[in-house]
Every structure is written in structure tokens, then in C-alpha cells.
Amino acid sequence: AKTPSTKLLTSVTNKQPINMVASCLSLVSLYARYLHRSLSAAGLSSQSLQIDDLTTIHFWGPKPTSSTPKPALLLIHGFGPQGVWQWRPQIVSFSRHFDLYVPDLVFFGDSTTKSSDRSEVFQAASVGKLMERLGVNRYSVVGTSYGGFVAYHMAAMWPDRVDKVVIASSGVNMRRRDNGELLKRAGVERIEDLMLPATAGQLRTLMGLAAFRRAYMPDFLLNDFLDKLYSENRKEKLELLKGLTLGQEDTVNISPLQQEVLIVWGDKDQIFLLDKATELKELLGERARLEVIKNASHVPQIEHAAHFNRIVKSFLRSSPSSS
User: Fold this and answer.
1) What is the pTM of this model?
2) Dihedral through CA 113, CA 115, CA 119, CA 125, nearest 10?
3) Which residues, 6 or more positions from 210, have their beta carbon under 8 angstroms from its beta carbon?
4) N or C terminus: which one in the chain shows less Cβ crowding within 10 Å?
């Protein structure tokens, strides 16, 4: 016969396994350790550099002992978890062909500043200073979403340093009304309720817009993501959203780029709709081309990583066009 204590243990084991896992184990922390081992195996190490008196940038880059230089490539993350969480499939694939630099933008991860500037132009200037301090004088840039804003400004600011540009899922050409239309699609009243989720429900809404195929995640796992990846620097990240220079007018205020540009978009993107991509191609000039990935939403680099990687690697490794 079972004793009362045995019955209690059986009841807890049968009825509350998820709660026990949630209280004793962080799946996000476990994956972070796996992620860091993957990056180390790809030849990258975690580093920090004070780029000026006010700002320190954390990044993953080639190990100092690396002796076989390859073309330099910057991977710039979007609004959300720090860079390596958004680029792992690309890091593993691209590290064979490029010296990768994966910075955390200011107020993401361990990158910080005492400056009061919160614009994406400041982010671009900070990453540019990082590369200059590292002695990397020529590099290509891949940016997704918010990181695409940063990549665009870097290309515009330093045409002599930035070689090729990849803008993925990034409405660099957004107008003031686009934010209101996004809020309607999301069913929220404020942009921070979408881009800075504070509850499992808000994070589920963001993930529903960002991914084409929606997998159910229990609240305990979403709360783990919120605690580990979304809880820091919330005040400053809200200031970043409000500090954007792009999308503040009723008209588009961007100019063509001198570099070859690849635009990559998911055909089901609900953050920046596909018509933004077709317009962006025309605005960026004759050296820009568009690749659309089917059955993908806002994160094609994760949803269809192999396809995304083939497109981007082919573009980056091709000879310059004659145009």
C-alpha cells in the first residue's frame, strides 16, 4: 500500500511535471550555454571594447589567435534578444567563409552607453567605431529588422568602408502611418506592448506576427524568455523605439545607396508587409535586388535558414556587378 507521502509524490509527479521543470530548470539558460559552445566552435569569442569615453560594445568576433583572415562580415540583430540569439544558423554557416562580427547594439546584451542619444544613427555610429577600433577597414553588413535600419545608415555614412549590404525584413522606408497599421494588425494600443513584451500573452502576440508557422509554447517557457532575454534595460529600449529617426514623416526620407544591396523578405511578413520590400528596392537604386522567401514571416533567417544562407552567401561571395 502507498503511504501518504508516496501518494503525494505520485500526485505531484503525474499532475505537475511542467511546474516542477519551470521552477527547477531554465531551458533558456541551457540553450544559451549550448549557443555559446556553438559560437566558440565556429571560431568566435565573447569580447567587449570601450569605443569612446561613453560607450562600451559587447560583441562576438574572431578569436585573437585567428591567423587566417577572411572577408569581414557584420551581422546586426533586430529589436529583441541579443545578436547571437537571432543569428546562430548564419554564424555556423558563414564562419567558414567570413570573419564574423556579431555586436550587441547599445542597451542589448552587455552593450551600454552614458550618451543620451537613442537614435538608430547613434547605433550605426557606435558599430562603425567598433570596427574602426578593431582595425577592420572594409566589411559587408547584414541587418535584420531594426538592425536593417542600422545597416542602412552605416552604408550611407561610410560607402568607402561598407562593401555589400543585406537588408532583411526591415522597413527602412516606413512612414508614420505604418506604425499605426502594425498596431492594428497586432491588436495592441502601444508599440511597446508589441516590441517590448512584458507578459506571456504579449510575447505570444509578437511571436505570432514574427513567425509564419506558429508553434504553441506554454506560459512557463514564454516567461523564461521574458525573464532572461527581455527584462533588462526596458526603459532605455523604450527610448530607442521613441528615438527612431526613420518613419517619423508622412513621406520616405531615404536615399539610394552606392553599394550593391540585397533585400531579403518573407512573403508572409506581418511586421513589415511585402509591399514595403518592393518599394524599398526601387528607392535604393539600380544596384538593389529583392529575394522573397515563400512561407516565411519576419524571421526568414530562422524559419528557412538554409535557403536564407544560400541567397546571402551567393550575393556576398559574387564578383561586383558591372552596374
Assistant:
1) 0.89
2) -70
3) 270, 271, 297, 298, 299
4) N
